[in-house]
Predict the structure of Nucleotidyltransferase family protein.
Amino acid sequence: MTGRPLSSDTAMILAAGLGKRMRPLTAAQPKPLVRVAGKSLIDHALDKLAAAGVAQAVVNAHYMADALEAHLRMRKGAPRITLSDERDLLLETGGGMVKAAGLLPEPFFCLNSDNIWLDGPADVFTELSQAWDPERMDALLLMVPHTRACNYRGEGDFHLDPEGKVSRRRPGRVAPFIYTGIQLVSHRLLRDAPAGPFSTNLLWTRAIAEGRLYGISHQGLWFEVGAPEAIKPTEEWLARA
């Protein structure tokens, strides 16, 4: 690793969802344990963290939490894993971060457990760290343009202005960037959060209004792996990489 060091030694992995889009594969296992290219989705994420030098991971769990916890317990080496237990109530993405906040430093990486990507010249955690400015940012989102979003068929999520500030796609329009599910987050984003389940989108909306939500464009490839039919083409891409 060269240049600026990582902004955090800890990442939260959001792994508590019900995995409805991945049915029937999630009828008997949580989505993070679905295998792609011979490895579970969550192990793809954890191995990327380890390779980048992120020492600790906080993983939340709700759906089939026992199976996920057992799998994580069998892992050896980095990162060191702490479970944020949501067995009693699924808190969604925002609520999950708030529940785990006491386990997370300032700032922390956050990523979805179903992410698969190929790094560009630098790993994604270095990309985010190099662009991070805590004086201006509540969160920094890793985006990818349509040309580097494999299997993706949607209309995009966000625009970036010349300074990297984020704005949302307008209804009925196409936006140039897709959110990869990876971000660097300040605890400032979580302030005054509602109790119980809620989406991170609620916090992002406030940060956009305050001019404190930023994004950067990922320089490698990113794979949409939200449904069973995306697994085979993703495996073919990875085999060619």
The domain at 10-240 is CATH 3.90.550.10 (Spore Coat Polysaccharide Biosynthesis Protein SpsA; Chain A). The chain has a mean pLDDT of 95. The first strand starts at residue 10 and ends at 14. The chain has one domain: 10-240.
